[in-house]
Amino acid sequence: MTKSGITSKEAKLHAILDAATELLANKPTASLTEIADHAGIGVATLHRYVESREQLMLQLCLRVTKVVGETIKRLAEETKDEEAYIPALVEELIPMGDKIHYLTNEASLYYSEEMAAAEREILEPVRASIRSLQQKGIMRQDLDSEWILNVLYSLLILTWQQVQQGNIAKNAAAKLVLDTLYRGVRT
């Protein structure tokens, strides 16, 4: 066990899944061989961790949901000032753009009620924050909170893509998301 309570095998699987997510976000049709190469391992080693592409996709979805969910939950608990929550969230989630992009674009997720329920659950602190900011008059009350959440989600993905393509500087990305979001929904 490591300090964080995970075994070295789990840590290796997490590293493989992170590398796979990074590659698949940019190349959704990547083969298992390409994924193994991107992770810096052989395909035989990859098969010790996942038996098939379908199992890899399931593991990816579960890992992404966990990582993004933990970040959202942690920030909700740490951020006492509700107005600071959304900016802090944007700062932390932009570097996770590949994971969020993967979650929203993986076709197999559209048919999984389990994954849909997990996504609804992990986004609940964000929904609650948006509703609270609407009630305080900081965000527009005439817009549905789910709409605002989806706009935020879309902005995060778009911004990550633009950073990856070199169109936006990484250090300017969060400000751009927040300026775009608040000028569209702020009173």
Automatic annotation (TrEMBL):
Coiled coil: none annotated. This is AcrR family transcriptional regulator. It comes from the Bacteria. It holds the Pfam family TetR_N. InterPro entries: Homeodomain-like_sf, HTH_TetR, Tet_transcr_reg_TetR-rel_C_sf. Residues 10-68 form the HTH tetR-type domain. One of its GO terms (molecular function) is DNA binding. Residues 31-50 bind DNA. Keywords: DNA-binding.
